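pipeline: protein-struct stage 2 | run 1193 | Cytochrome b5 domain-containing protein 1
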Amino acid sequence: MVARPKYFTPNEVSVHNTTDDLWVSFLGKVYNLTPLCEKYKGDVLLKPIILSAGKDISHWFNSKTKDIRTHVDPQTNCIIPYCPNGRFVHIPPPYPDSDWANDFGRPWWRDDAYLVGILSQKTRLIKIINTLTSQDQVIEVCSEEIMTEIQDRYMKYNAHAGSYTWKFEGKNLDMCKTLQENGIDDEDEEFYQLSMNDDTYLQPIHLYFNDDLTEA
């Protein structure tokens, strides 16, 4: 069985915003550039990357070639990488420079060693109600995630979430399907058009305790 990719919300990416813990997203994927920052610590070419920590930098790239965008240098009429925020790690200098070390192999944006997952194309809020304790929790999830992955997210609020039956409108949810595939429609757009607070009117998922608590 092929392992499913790990999905991240933009909010999850945004908290990794320091040189000691630096993530970015681009072209729909999420990358952990912390090792790159450690390797090039103190290098001025890290500055544009550090300033973009926790953000989406898809605008740095050509969506067709998956490579850095280019433009014509007005002084030399040569095609060079387009770096409006300044040249960064693995980008060659605009002019010949014998001091530039190009023995790094694959540039970081083409190196899957930094890849940690997929950026969700659409996140949504869901309300989970524990019928045993009457507690409810609103969490942000990725629309691409199946229910077991959403259950994993909920574990930090209830470590025994796996010992509950998950239901929507009285029907057991298929934990191997997404919210949409389980008939829980995404109503964000409708809420927006009606100027409604979607936190208040979220369709709830109910958890029913199964008796056999999993071991903590």
